[in-house]
Amino acid sequence: MKKIMFLGGSTQQIPAIKYAKEQGYYTILCDYLADNPGQNYSDEFHCVSTTDKESILEVAKKKNIDGIVAYASDPAAPTAAYIGNKLNLPSNPYESVLILSKKDLFRRFLKEHGFNCPRAESFRTIEEAKNSMHKFQFPIMVKPTDSSGSKGVSRIDSNEEFESAFELAISNSREKRVIVEEYIEMAHEYMIGGDIFVIDRKLEFCGFLNCHRDKQVNPYVPIGKSFPLLITEEQIDIVRNELQKVIDLLKIKMGALNIEVMFDKNGKLYIIEMGPRNGGNMIPDLLEMITGVNLVKGTVEAAMGNHDFNIIYEQKERYYSTYVLHSAEEGKLVDIVFKNGIDKNIVNQVIYQEKGSEIEIFNGANKALGIIFLKYGSLEELKNKMKNMNQYINILLK
Question: What's the CATH number of domain 185-315, 3.40.600.10, 3.60.15.10, 3.40.50.880, 3.30.470.20?
Fold first, then answer.
């Protein structure tokens, strides 16, 4: 029986483990959390941090694995590549995955290779950062170099706001490093996001989606994705071509990449993120609903060296979204109430928190209560309901 190792066993990572089990693979899970839910679906569990490369390598060698996957996990993606390279398993170059995983390394890569890139610099101390602030024009973005889900991200408009933004960012950074970069004004309503898939170094699937934010709670934390994409075909071609250039330069061979890109007021494309893993918030599940393409299958099979992944699909006139259930307040969860007929749009829901759970303010993707999948009859209905979801959902706390 072939063995596959998974790095991370959160609720969002379970679909990949379940798929592998269904295909008859022996599943080995590593996670630093002893109570992770993924272990209930795995054949074997090891309580090891997914960022501890040498410890994971030791387990991988001992178990003689045939493949390794860091599904929907930024921190674990370099580890998976490191193990894959060391054991000659299907994988992407470790140095390339590291570049894609660290915001400061990725900005440097983009600048060195002539891509559009905002002025950016990374720092370990606030004193070091303050001494360089004269180089930047406000507004600026302050981010951890190595966090996902927009945790610790701020936009600031003055020097007076800088210290608190830096402290927030560094507290959310595993490596205690912060990147400061100039703000780019977007020319379209929604950030362009979603997952793409590479087969034999070629971009074969583009699951582009609109990225929604809740400006009243946190304007930089995603609260959902929607389809169809609201940019032109010409812009879509530009995005595809620029992403393929990155894939070529970094010698990315296979697998899923989670992207965020945008066009500025002058029509220039900026690649904001290109994470070397499947997207969180169940993006692959939404894309399968829209296209029929199973990116969970693609990710697992690519890691096992199987390349007969079918990415052919017929584009249809459909209107879909996900919405991340979240709270602007903290307290104990009493209930999640759907009202004003929104339940007729809901085609699936995954609830993370039980009644009575302690709920935190939604300042990062890890504070989500769950995700709902919705289908609409028209684009107008989609846009109206996504913009006014507080009229359709009540998060009751005490």
Answer: 3.30.470.20
* Residue 34 structure tokens: 């002893």
Whether the pLDDT of residue 313 is over 80: the answer is no
Task: Find out whether 129 and 145 touch, Cβ atoms under 8 Å.
Answer: no
pLDDT tens per residue, range 34-70: 999 999 999 999 999 999 999 999 999 999 999 999 9
**CATH code for the part of the protein at 119-182:** 3.30.1490.20
Q: How far is the C-alpha of 330 from the C-alpha of 337, rounded, in Å?
A: 17
Residue 20 in this model has a pLDDT that exceeds 80: yes
Q: What is the DSSP string of 199-224?
A: ETTEEEEEEEEEEEEETTTEEEEEEE
**Burial of 126 (C-beta count, 10 Å sphere; 0-12/13-18/19+):** middle
331 CB contacts (<8 Å, ≥6 apart)?
Answer: 358, 359, 397, 398
User: Highest-confidence range of 113-117, 169-173, 357-361, by mean pLDDT?
Assistant: 113-117
> For residues 168 and 155, is the Cβ–Cβ distance under 8 A?
no
Q: pTM for the complete prediction? A: 0.94
Per DSSP, the three-state class of 164 is helix
Does position 315 have pLDDT exceeding 70, yes or no? no
Instruction: Please tell me the distance from the alpha carbon of residue 82 to that of residue 98, in angstroms, as a whole number.
Output: 9
